[in-house]
Amino acid sequence: MSENLQVVYKNGIFRPLESIELPEDKYFNIDVHEMVEKTDNKTKLEIFNKWMANLDPNTPTLTDEQMSRESIYEDQRKRQL
Known about the structure:
Blueprint: E1 7-10, E2 13-16, H1 41-53, H2 64-68, H3 74-80
Antiparallel strand pairs: 1-2
């Protein structure tokens, strides 16, 4: 089982921000990541550029034709008509 929860940490206790259904008296592993409340466009661009720099250079890219298609199934729909 895996869930992504938003929580607040206060007085040594993690409290979920919304209701969750979990079994009582069961142990869970928690990965803690600080939430960015407000991010300006410059920061978003910096984050994006760091992400792009870490991509595998062998990752295939989409061609202009593939990006311009309305759907990846466009050719199949044309054949069915």
